[in-house]
Amino acid sequence: MRKLLLAVMLAAPLMASACNTIAGLGKDVSTVGSVMSDTAEKTK
What is the C-alpha separation between 8 and 18, in angstroms, rounded? Predict the structure, then answer.
């Protein structure tokens, strides 16, 4: 779980720099949140 969290934290700035608009940033953050929620549910 720690490795996944670390990977997400390292990838987030790269994803944020790749999007061109605030809407794009919102979608990226939403996607990351969904992935983290799904992973947390699977590890219960």
Answer: 15
